[in-house]
Amino acid sequence: MAFVNMEIPEEMVSFVMQPDKEEQLKRNAMILYLYVHDGIISHGRAAEILGIFKMDLIVLYGKLGIPYIEMTAEEIEEELETVKELGETLA
User: Could you list the residue range(s) of the whole structural domain that residue 33 is in?
Assistant: First the structure.
């Protein structure tokens, strides 16, 4: 574990300095999410950094309102249609 000195607004100190391990995990997961979202690291790598399983990270993000698959219902339907068409072509 490394320690980092950060300059943050005074009003944030109580939120950042959480002694509870669950809250620390949430905070660190949210910090890493920026890099996951931008495609810099994968969910698997973020989970590895946090010392948890990938599925546990996906569930944690879900509880925080962050979906694993960032697609609209229309995009999902298009993907399913493509898979269906490919299946029919290969059959």
Answer: 19-90
Cβ contact 57:67 at 8 Å: no
Residue 13 in domain: no
Rounded to two decimals, what is the model's pTM? 0.72
| Model confidence pLDDT, tens digit, residues 72-82 | 888 888 888 98
The total domain count for the chain is 1
Exposed e or buried b per residue across 55-79, where buried means at least 16 C-beta atoms within 10 angstroms of its C-beta: eebbebbeeeeeeeeeeeeeeeeee
Q: Which residues contact 41 (CB under 8 A, 6 or more apart)?
A: 32, 35, 49
